[in-house]
Amino acid sequence: MSGEAEAIDVVNNDLSGANIVMPSEEKLLFADRIFTRLNPPSIGAIPSMIHTKAKIVGGIFAGYAVFWWLTVLQVNNESQFESIFFGPEFMTITIIAPCLVFLGSLLSDFSRELGQLFPGLASGIMFVLSVLYTFEPAIMGLAGDLEMSDALWKTGRLAILCGTVLMAAKLFIDAWLLVWVKEFMENNPGIDDSISGEEVNSEHEIVPETEA
Q1: I need a labelling partner for 203 at 20 to 30 A (CA). Which of 6, 65, 108, 125 fits?
Q2: Burial tier of 109 (Cβ tally within 10 Å: 0-12, 13-18, 19+)
Q3: How confident is the model at residue 198 (pLDDT cuts 50, 70, 90)?
Q4: 83 or 17, which is more confident?
Q5: Distance (Å, rounded) from C-alpha 165 to C-alpha 145?
Q6: Rg value, the chain, Cα
Q7: How far apart are CA 66 and CA 70, in angstroms?
Q8: CB atoms closer than 10 angstroms to residue 20
């Protein structure tokens, strides 16, 4: 009997040493939220999704740069305009407002995915400032401080620039999250079921049967 007990102890020690070390619950929950949000059809489809989103983001930023160069930088008779919000000129606003949108999008997703308070507050402030900068010329046109056609032309360009950056930022964040999941899966093989709404995979844990 003592020999059988020693054999069982050896088997138990070997099995416990073979168990896979699972990552932290926080990382598993984060990966599960990304899967729920982006809904990749399979693990193997993630690299293709990253490539597609990255390619679209690159194209959007290229179009943004061309549009800004043609409609802002190459305009010689641009009327003078200074914002009442900290006093930047129009050309400076065309840079500040899209940057606020991009940073606000990053902080907003950071706050949502990780449950952080202050990044969400900062993103809200940035979005409000970008909206104020975008529609301020149109409001001043309605108030008679600017010619209406010039005011709408300024607001239209700002709206296109900010909307383009908002779209690119969303795709960029999705691609970055997919890259994180891809690296997480490569570093932690065998947890496919644990981040797709299923229970943690327990196929690697073997419980030895005992005879009655």
Answers
A1: 6
A2: buried
A3: very low
A4: 83
A5: 29
A6: 27
A7: 6
A8: 13
Of 197, 83, 63, the C-alpha closest to 135 is: 83
Structure tokens at 82: 């200074």
Tell the residue number behind the tokens 């049967």, with chain if given. 209
Give me the amino acid identity at 76: N
Determine what percent of the chain is predicted with pLDDT higher than 90: 30
Q: How much is the mean pLDDT over the chain?
A: 77
Q: What pLDDT is attached to residue 21?
A: 55
Tell me the residue length of the chain.
Answer: 212
Closest CA relative to residue 46, chosen from 56, 34, 57, 61: 34
User: What confidence category does residue 32 fall into, taking pLDDT thresholds of 50, 70 and 90?
Assistant: confident
96 within 8 A of 162, measured Cβ to Cβ:
no
